[in-house]
Design brief:
- The structure is a single chain.
- The chain has 137 residues and is of the alpha+beta class.
- The chain has one domain: 2-Layer Sandwich (Alpha-Beta Plaits).
- The protein contains seven helices and four strands.
- A four-stranded antiparallel sheet has the order 2-3-1-4.
- It is globular and about 35 Å long.
């Protein structure tokens, strides 16, 4: 089994889509081994997205991620990283395949409903940023 990190972002949470996204997560066979509802501070969002600190969208991204509550999760499944990324769809909802979460719930590249780790090392960092070992059941 593999673990990955996911976020139901502030736009999807504010739109009332979190329950529908969670239902899809379970329907696709993921086990939720950790879940928290959070309201990230700007500093917490900056720490999480530090890898993008030099990118032009960093300020906009961290402002957005600290604008409203979100749900962070650790998901587990066979091939969880790829499986979750496939379920999310393309970063740009306009380019996402029908049936993906971003196609259904995303509005733009910046407000695209979900986040997911892109590799095992990224997943390890992201899970560790939000969860300690005792919280993963």
């Amino acid at each position: 089994m593999e673990r990955t990190f996911s976020i139901i972002k502030p736009d999807a949470f504010a739109a009332g889509s979190a329950g529908k996204i969670l239902a899809r997560i379970y329907a696709e066979g993921f086990k939720v081994v950790g879940m928290k509802k959070l309201f990230l501070s700007k500093v917490e969002a900056e720490g999480f997205y530090a890898v993008h600190a030099e990118r032009p969208f960093f300020g906009e991204l961290t402002d957005f991620m600290s604008s409203a509550p979100c749900i962070v999760m650790c998901l587990e499944a066979e091939g969880a990283i790829k499986k979750w990324r496939d379920l999310m769809g393309a970063t740009n909802p306009a380019e996402a395949v029908e049936g993906t979460l971003r196609k259904e719930f995303g509005a733009s590249i910046g407000e695209n409903a979900t986040h997911g780790s892109d590799a095992p090392d990224t997943a390890a960092f992201e899970i560790g940023y939000f969860f300690n070992g005792l919280e993963l059941l």
